Amino acid sequence: MMNNIAKVGIIGGGLMGKEAASAFGRWFALNDYPVAVELSAVCDLDEEVLGWYEQIPSVQLITSDYEQILASDQVDVVYVALPHHLHEEYYIDILESGKDLLAEKPFGMNLQAAKNIYGAFEASSSFVRCSSEFPFLPGAQRVIAEINSGRMGDIMEIHAGFLHASDLNPQKPINWKRQSQFCGEIGVMGDLGIHVIHIPLRLGWQPRRLYSQLQKVITRRPDGQGGWAESDTWNNATLTTDVNIEGKDIPMTLEMKRLAPGQKNSWYIEVLGTEGGVRYSTKDTKTLWTFRRGEEQAWQQIDLGFQGPFPTITGGIFEVGFPDYFMQMLAAYFAEREGSLNGRFGCLTPQEALMSHHIFQAALESKRTQSVVEITY
Fold first, then answer.
1. How much of the chain, in percent, has pLDDT values that exceed 70?
2. CB–CB of 5/37 below 8 Å?
3. How far, in Å, CA of 51 to CA of 54, rounded?
4. d(CA 192, CA 175)
5. How does the average pLDDT of the chain come out, rounded?
């Protein structure tokens, strides 16, 4: 372990802020990691949320004024977990302050916001990455390795998605993720889309054409005050795209749904080739499926253990959970920031985040025109 310590400030101390704090609190679980990381400052408008952070010994600054985070010499990196409509203002302010940034998805509520953030990134010297934790699951890492192995032959089709079902409850109260003024016109694509597109973009599978099927199914929800509020975002999105792989047009389907019956929180990816295939879903977190073409064709099930890109004290036979692969994502961020990623899978880059917004914007245009849209990046 190196002697240097990266000090982190969190803006938005709610659910994801607490997950980050938990990961930093057990950073010692990473074996032979190149840099120490500790949480030093937290900003939130909710006094009850802030009170939770008082139990963390390393936290020296607890505030409701985010500018104190930016001015603090006890903060090197800022992690932001705020509603989408605040991304542009906060991210640009952080970049202009000279701090490094770990941004939550979707990197702005729309394409123009993402462009503005990207412009501020290019004008800065800050290290910036965007949060997307699912590729750091052992199963997802095995999918990437199988694709890169070349054993699948010529790739024929790609399917990826992220499915929720909680919005099937029409009595679920309205919140900011269900109102376009806060989450953007892209709706569910902004909430779930980067998780779906991260691995394809990293593999160079950049959609060129797109046809979208967007659905608004439940359009009003309880407002929490005895009345009803308009829920005007897209609940479900299915994007049919094609990508160029070795000079061939390959179909790729991307699903992002809040109304997917039976799905609690299911992220999946499947890639099929002429010689083999691979698929993985968090529906069965321990199981990787691989396919080999032979005289008799068969899918094979592999039982996975605890195998992340960054070794930890946890034995390989044990199961992985959300706090584990969230921590692996953070480890990837700080390793890359330190120049020690060493070929491992990294967090979503600002360039990839901007690409995702071009895809989401094309989906809106496809829905509006009911046509296939050429995507320009």
1. 99
2. yes
3. 5
4. 16
5. 95
